[in-house]
Amino acid sequence: MLRRLQFKVDKYRKVEFFFFLTYFYLFRILTDFEYNIWERHIFGVDLSAVEYNIAYGTSNLIAFYSFYKILLHLLIKKKVWQFIVFIVGFLICYSLYNKAVNLLYSNLPFLSEGLRNSALKYLRFRSIGYSLAYVLKEFLAVGSLAYFMYSVQQDEQLKALKEQQLVSELTHLKAQLQPHFFFNTLNNIYSLALQRSVATAPLVAKLAEMMRYILYKSDENLVPLKDEIAFIQNYVEVENIRYRTAINIKFDVQGIDDKSKISPLLLLPFIENAFKHGIEEEAKEGFVNIIICKTEEELTLEVNNSIAKNKGGAGGIGLVNVKKRLEILYPEKHKLEIQNDGKTHQVSLTLEMR
């Protein structure tokens, strides 16, 4: 986060640096060069004009860079009255500033005599010392930059707030998911322990592997898809240990590569839901069929399960949470279809892989 913030600060400084150098040096020099060609029919570089533009370009750059920084601050703070007072004050101070600049230039021995004489001539003027039309042009140019920078920074802040809100919400959803998952799995272990089943120890071992994955991977934004599939496979094996041959469980994986990544624990609730709310109370019949297929652009999850006779449907906090996560992580990049005819429950999820 700090690196990204520093990158944005550096980016803004580069834009400011490029604008002020271009506007107060390059444009002035190119304007004089064009004037010499088309009006005075002088071809080549006029060194006296270059010196003049660099000298007065520097003085104006200093004045209007200060104006820009204060203006940007007032825009960010949204201080309207201070902004109006600042404009009037700047016009007064800019007149005094020009007088001081001309006084300085007229006494600098390393400047050419022509530039010193010009500064002395400007110093003797009884006017305010600048053209209002010229200053208005500077106001518009520098003010436009300040407003642009203000808009960009406002957008960046809004984006950062939205990202922070999404991270907080995802953290909350994951915090709900993990206890829910362990609660269900510990229930399975408890049931087997009551039966003094020899499958209790293998189930505990599998649970330990899954706990390790959740502890070290669930806080990451993306994890390798193959690791997520391995985690799901462990979960299915845990259910196989629990149900043995009573339930027909099929798990098929196709096209999984080493490069694809996915948000952790995103697929689990659909599979967990099939066991928890579909066949948990079935003793002699029932099925769960799981197919995960990865193509070049998409990941598809198909889950079909029978519905227990005394179950009215499927639900649970895990399924509610995963729908919210899909909306946050894959907005308009996922398709979820859930069908229930009273006998079978079908889930079809398609993700556009990032």
TrEMBL record:
InterPro entries: Bact_2-comp_sensor_kinase, HATPase_C_sf, Sig_transdc_His_kin_internal. Coiled coil: none annotated. Residues 169-245 form the Signal transduction histidine kinase internal region domain. The keyword Transmembrane applies. Gene3D superfamilies: Histidine kinase-like ATPase, C-terminal domain. The keyword Oxidoreductase does not apply. It holds the Pfam family His_kinase. This is Signal transduction histidine kinase internal region domain-containing protein. It comes from Pedobacter frigiditerrae.
